Amino acid sequence: MPATVVVGTQWGDEGKGKLTDLLAKDMQMVVRYQGGHNAGHTIVVDDESFALQLIPSGILYPNITPIIGNGVVVDPGVLLTEMQHLQDKGVDTSKLKISGNAHLIMPYHQELDRVAERFLGKNSLGTTKRGIGPTYADKASRVGIRVQDLLDEKIFRQKLDVVLKEKNSILAKVYNRLALSAEEIANTYLNDYAPRITPMIADTVSLVHEALEAGQNILLEGAQATYLDLDHGTYPFVTSSNPTAGGACTGSGVGPLHLNRIIGIAKSYVTRVGAGPFPTEIFDERSEYISKKGHEFGTNTGRRRRIGWFDVVMLRQAKRLNSLSEIALTKLDILSGVETINVCVGYEADGVRYDYMPYHQSILHKVKPIYEQFPGWSQDISQATTFDQLPESARNYILFLQKSSGLNITMVGVGPGREQFLTLNDSFKL
Question: Structure pTM?
Answer without folding.
Answer: 0.91
